[in-house]
Write a structure and sequence with these properties.
isomerase, pyridoxal phosphate, about 25% helix, Alanine racemase, Lyase, Ornithine Decarboxylase, Chain A, domain 1, alpha/beta, alanine racemase activity
């Protein structure tokens, strides 16, 4: 088979911005060091692209969610720097962790027993301080299964760090009291937003994810965090509409006059969902509004303000994340992780 021709979608990763974001979050973490959440294929941006950059910037603590995410990360960093947040749900997962030398995050008494039965060894422990997803309850701290563990990092996760919520302080207090009751070497509470909550939340290790990749979960991070992901699409067709012509699924747009439109091949599989209707593509600062409904693999753009654009030219998706989140009704997490694998990854 000949080489594939280059795709009409490209996702440029600003490697400088990614490295700088890690360094900024590490500096903001004060005496704590920053790790890196690299689950979900580095929030959609690509493990093979992002993990080496985070490693070279200085990160030494990498977090994934699933065991299936371990092998790609191990191409770039040693196993004792990788932890699996979902822990050991089965004996097979515990055996795999031990064989690979990767640390599980123990998330329940049952997981603690599975880990010990498989032979145990160093692990992290998640304590639930109110988010009610994973983690032992504080009143389980002194149980035999937990006492038997060799706990490296004691973790908890904040539910509302991106808001000024009373829950932040209540989780902080719950974490404080459980810390005294469980032997551990280091403690870790803050995600990206938690880093901006201040020194009380930093402990020994912070675990930023979203903000590494350009997400801005709190206004305090606005001037520090730089955009990392820049998706672009090529116009695969340009056409003229007459007054009264309609565009796309369900004919939701009707041309008020003769106009030029461009088609990009982009849609649901690329994370561009119907809720994107009010978003505005751009070319060199010129706005190119979306016309009609986002259809399966196709989006029509108004080229009224860009007469110079023709077939084959590149246009930019609106990926200022806070702004895109408010226009699409999607969270910044979703906007990143939904970007599919039809984009060719390019580095700057
Ligand atoms: C995903 C995750 C993080 C990173 O959170 P962000 O909000 O993306 O910074 C940190 N810790 C745990 C346990 C996580 O699941």
């Amino acid at each position: 088979m000949p080489d594939l021709p280059p795709p009409t979608l490209r996702l440029t990763i600003d490697t400088d911005a990614l490295a700088q974001n890690w360094r900024s979050l590490d500096a903001m973490s004060g005496t704590a060091r920053a790790g890196a959440a690299v689950k979900a294929n580095c929030y959609g941006l690509g493990v093979d692209t992002c993990v080496p950059i985070l490693r070279d910037a200085g990160a030494r603590d990498f977090f994934v969610a699933h065991w299936s995410e371990v092998p790609p990360v191990l191409r770039h960093v040693p196993p004792d720097q990788v932890a699996v947040l979902h822990g050991v749900v089965t004996r097979e997962e515990a055996d795999f962790a031990r064989a690979m030398g990767v640390l599980p995050v123990i998330d329940s008494l049952r997981q603690a027993e599975i880990w010990q039965a498989a032979g145990g060894g160093p692990c992290h422990l998640m304590v639930d301080t109110g988010i009610n997803r994973l983690g032992i309850r504080p009143d389980e701290a002194r149980s035999d299964a937990i006492r038997a563990l060799d706990i490296h990092a004691l973790l908890s996760h904040l539910a509302c760090a991106d808001e000024d919520s009373a829950m932040n302080t209540s989780q902080l207090h719950a974490f404080e009291s459980v810390r005294e009751r469980i032997p551990h070497r280091i403690a870790s509470l803050a995600n990206s937003a938690g880093i901006a909550l201040g020194a009380n939340y930093h402990y020994d290790l912070t675990r930023p994810g979203l903000a590494l990749y350009g997400g801005i979960p709190r206004p305090e991070l606005r001037d520090t965090i730089r955009q990392v992901a820049r998706p672009e699409a090529r116009l695969i067709a340009v056409r003229k509409l007459e007054r009264g012509d309609t565009v796309g699924y369900n004919a939701l747009f009707t041309a008020p006059d003769a106009m030029r439109i461009g088609i990009v091949s982009l849609g649901y599989a690329d994370g561009i969902l119907r809720s994107w209707g009010d978003a505005v593509f751009t070319h060199d600062g010129t706005d190119l509004p979306i016309l009609g409904r986002i259809s399966m693999d196709m989006i029509a753009l108004d080229l009224g303000k860009a007469p110079e654009l023709g077939e084959g030219d590149w246009v930019a998706l609106p990926y200022d994340l806070p702004e895109a989140a408010s226009r699409t009704g999607l969270s910044q997490y979703e906007l990143l992780t939904l970007l599919g694998n039809r984009f060719e990854r390019a580095l700057t």
